[in-house]
Specification:
Elements lengths: L1 H28 L10 H10 L3 E3 L11 H6 L1 E7 L2 E6 L4 H4 L9 E5 L3 H15 L1 E12 L2 E16 L4 E13 L5 E8 L2 E6 L5 E2 L3 E6 L6 E2 L20 E2 L4 E6 L22 H5 L15 H4 L1 H6 L2 E2 L2 H11 L1 H25 L5 H4 L4 H19 L4 E7 L10 E7 L3 E5 L5 E4 L6 H17 L4 H15 L1 H11 L1 H8 L6 H12 L3 E7 L5 E8 L1 H22 L21
Parallel strand pairs: 1-11, 5-14, 9-15
Antiparallel strand pairs: 1-13, 2-3, 2-4, 5-6, 6-7, 7-8, 8-9, 10-11, 11-12, 16-17, 16-21, 17-18, 18-19, 20-21
Helix pairs in contact: 10-13, 12-13, 12-14, 12-18, 13-14, 14-18
Length: 574
């Protein structure tokens, strides 16, 4: 035995040092198991370095879950024409991994209702926690090299303001240079998103971006006061659950076809799939990471991220002003009102209130017209300012005669009809016209009470009348620019029919109509135009301006009509 060991000693020593060399080489050269050009150790380090912290809003039901949770509650189905076929009531990852054609219309429909999902998920997350799927990949855009770190979050349900559907995929993306230095952060929002320079990102512990997640829709924002400038009325804030970066269970994703994560190959929807009307209403489940937006997010993440709308400090300031507009405006109006009331009280003590005296002059006509204008303005607030109606005579969107498709008024702002769900509020930038107009009405009344001269009230009437024209002008400008804004509202190619209709509305925003066949919608009759509320505002503005001109050109109070304070009492004789 001793001779045998001596005989093979050199072989054993050589083998030992060979293994050391192999391990050392692996450690130095690294292992790139998915062949994307990045060592696995580098990918893991980057994934952990920039892992986000998510800040939710109070009242949020759903938080990042695992795909296993959705799969365990789902039935695999397929849409064939107008029919839905059940494929498997207990699908597996291996089964869905071979379904790689988007056009086959497979989908994983959750068996539970919204209420059941929320209750079931709440119990599940208490046991299983929160998950994030990380995709790290080098990429090239315009001959520039980048390294991309994507954080994919899956939510069991999306119950946003304008749509609700099973399953929801959102992504937070960090763009780095070849030296692994962060350049941009890109946050997904509905069908698009925003990017900002890394220096503008709020961070935890230096490298972990803070993401403010919108209630229900799970759109991602850089600040808690965003969500008010966009198509959808996203509710964003910092008053809800906060998931710190170290609370996530991180799952590193390899490039497709190089790992056991076969679910990435599934080309179906992660949620129920209905007809085209369900697509319009935002009720269809989303595609997975590999196929999202025709695969651009996964295959070309640098191109997807760099083409997003870039935001900076000025944009954040504008968002803050919009979010706090009502508070700022109210404070300013209250200060002005207090100042005017103080002036009225001061004039009253000096016997200087002249309203009744002016009502006995020619200026009274202008004053009365101003009062009529105020009454018309108040009435106009609750009456529609702009209406678009539609009549679809056949197909899945068929309506029962004419129905309101879009309504704009002074109280609820912009409302749209999703053809089945009734009118819902549209656009995050809701201008509170009713608050502004009511404030102007109150200030006009105070100006009237405390008027010092007919020329003064005349100038204020003219300015107030011009101000009343602003809402109508804004509405007409919006409709006139509708055709140019449609591409930013619709993901992908804009349908030709939508382009035709929007062009007609933009070319004739005051009033117009359209009748014709629109693909699967069949024959559609559409009409649009200013409604009674706008005409009342226009009449109120004209009446006020005329009243202002009359008051401005009147000669004021005649001497006999001037109010004089009573003479002091005679001295008391002793």
């Amino acid at each position: 035995m001793k001779n045998l060991l001596k005989k093979y000693r050199m072989i054993i020593i050589f083998s030992f040092f060979s293994l050391l060399f192999v391990f050392a080489s692996v450690n130095v050269l690294g292992v790139d198991s998915d062949g994307d050009g990045l060592d696995d150790v580098v990918e893991a380090n980057l994934a952990n370095t920039y892992l986000p912290t998510l800040q939710f809003v109070d009242g949020e039901f759903f938080f990042p879950a695992s795909i296993d949770y959705h799969l365990s509650n789902s039935v695999l189905k397929k849409k064939v024409g107008d029919s839905i076929i059940t494929i498997d009531t207990s699908p597996t990852i291996a089964e869905i991994a071979v379904l790689t054609n988007v056009n086959d219309n497979y989908f994983l429909e959750n068996k539970l209702s919204f209420e059941e999902i929320s209750q079931d998920y709440n119990a599940w997350k208490e046991l299983n926690g929160y998950f994030v799927y990380v995709h790290v990949k080098p990429d090239i855009k315009d001959s520039e090299n980048y390294v991309i770190v994507q954080y994919w979050f899956f939510y069991a349900f999306n119950n946003g303001p304008l749509n609700d559907h099973q399953g929801d995929w959102e992504v937070v993306q960090i763009i780095l240079n070849p030296d692994y230095e962060p350049l941009y952060a890109c946050y997904s929002q509905h069908e698009s998103g925003q990017k900002t320079l890394w220096v503008n990102v709020e961070k935890v512990d230096g490298t972990h971006p803070v993401v403010y997640v919108a209630k229900g829709s799970h759109a991602n924002y850089f600040r808690p006061y965003q969500g008010n400038l966009g198509m959808e009325s996203d509710i964003v804030g910092d008053n809800g659950k906060r998931i710190n970066y170290d609370e996530f269970q991180l799952i590193l994703l390899k490039e497709v076809g190089t790992s056991s994560q076969g679910w990435l190959e599934f080309a179906g929807k992660w949620g129920a799939l209905g007809g085209s009307n369900e697509e319009l209403k935002g009720r269809n489940g989303p595609l997975g990471p590999k196929y999202s937006q025709s695969g651009s997010k996964w295959q070309n993440p640098a191109s997807w991220g760099l083409r997003l709308f870039i935001v900076d400090g000025n944009w954040f300031t504008m968002n803050w002003l919009v979010a706090n507009f009502l508070l700022i405006f109210s404070v300013i109006i209250i200060i002005i009102m207090v100042w005017k009331i103080y002036g009225i009280v001061k004039l009253h003590r000096k016997g200087g209130l002249k309203l009744w005296a002016f009502l006995r002059t020619k200026a009274s006509i202008g004053i009365i017209l101003g009062i009529i204008s105020i009454i018309l303005t108040v009435i106009a607030l609750s009456i529609p300012w702009y209406i678009t109606t539609i009549n679809i005579q056949s197909g899945p969107f068929m309506t029962d005669g004419n129905v309101d498709l879009l309504i704009i008024d002074g109280i609820k702002g912009v409302q749209v009809n999703l053809l089945g769900d009734g009118l819902v509020q549209f656009f995050g930038a809701k201008i509170p016209f009713f608050v502004i107009i009511l404030a102007l009405v109150v200030l006009s009344i105070l100006d009237l009470i405390g008027m010092k001269s007919s020329s003064q009230i005349g100038r204020k009437y003219i300015i107030g009348g011009i101000t009343l024209l602003i809402p109508v002008i804004i509405i007409l400008l919006f409709m006139a620019l509708l055709a140019s804004m449609i591409p930013s509202f619709v993901s992908g190619e804009v349908p030709a029919e939508l382009t035709i209709i929007s062009n007609q509305i933009s070319s004739s925003p005051i009033i117009g109509s359209y009748s014709g066949s629109i693909g699967e919608y069949g024959v559609v009759q559409l009409s649009w135009g200013l409604a009674l509320g706008s005409y009342l505002l226009l009449i109120a503005a004209i009446v006020k301006i005329i009243g202002g001109i009359i008051a401005l050109t009147s000669k004021g109070i005649p001497p006999s009509a001037t109010y004089l304070p009573p003479p002091p009492p005679p001295p008391i004789l002793q």
